[in-house]
Specification:
2 copies of one chain form a homodimer.
Chain A: H1 6-17, E1 22-23, H2 24-31, H3 39-52, E2 55-58, E3 63-66, E4 77-83, E5 89-91, H4 95-107, E6 111-122
Parallel strand pairs in A: 4-6
Antiparallel strand pairs in A: 1-3, 2-3, 4-5
Helix pairs in contact in A: 1-3, 2-3
Chain B binds a DNA duplex through helix 1 and helix 3.
Chain lengths: ~130, ~130
DNA sequence: AGTTTATTGTTATAAAATAACATTATGTAA
DNA sequence: TTACATAATGTTATTTTATAACAATAAACT
């Protein structure tokens, strides 16, 4: 269990408290009062947090969310549903889907390391 | 069957001929001699081509590939494997996986429209 | 303590995407 | 065919996202 450095902790806290994915520059503007002033500081922390599996990047949105999956300490596989109406992003906890997809990748002849899956549509509330 | 406009055709041809995903500004530099001079012209064509399902965006790479799936004329569902060594990107033709995933989304309570799936690892050659 | 390794701070810049507005082309319906 | 609407294009400027490069600190190791 890796401990976070100061910058990593500050940035993780903000992402973790947020109810929605945060963009790097939104994070930046929220931590400038704490002395984190420049983009590289944010991006470096984000990179490490992703490596540790503490956060994930929503590629289609260039935004970052805390991992909801308590067992997820390596960022091996991520799956999200994204509502095109209310923009809600939900992490799909995914033992089944994960098993299915890793199997699929192996069959396809790939030495599989991770995947990223993003569903788009309307969430329960919006449909 | 929709016909392409001049700019769309030029840009589709370049993507279609390429053996690898192309970035918007790479495309731009390749079409400037044909009179397409500015980013918006490229991005507009890309957006339309995506709508038509002629190309897909590899979100994790900000790059674009022609659709390999002849039946794919709506960009409903995309799946790619990306080799982290040689950078090869392959579209996975995906009736099974597609069925599985759309089922999965429905069960999760989502009104599903499309998904994007990106596998990372080592391809056959590189592993 | 001295050395390596990781993290941080900082400035500048690169890369990716879009806003805004003027212009031209295409389709369509009286 | 003319008038109107719609779509596509051209253009300039700007915004947004991400990284290069290098100096300074801090932490971990022997």
């Amino acid at each position: 269990m890796q401990t976070l450095t100061r910058n990593q902790q500050i940035i993780f806290d903000i992402i973790n408290k947020s109810s929605e994915p945060l963009k790097a520059y939104t994070i930046l503007s929220n931590v400038q009062k704490k002395g984190i002033k420049a983009p590289p500081q944010v991006y470096r922390a984000l990179d490490k947090l992703i490596e540790m599996g503490k956060i994930h990047k929503i590629e289609s949105k260039n935004a970052f969310v805390a991992c909801q999956n308590s067992s997820c300490n390596v960022s091996k596989a991520t799956a999200f549903s994204i509502c095109e109406s209310c923009e809600e992003v939900t992490e799909i906890s995914n033992s089944k889907i994960s098993k299915y997809l890793s199997n699929f990748a192996e069959k396809a002849g790939m030495e599989y390391k991770k995947y990223n899956l993003e569903f788009f549509g309307l969430c329960k509330k919006c449909k």
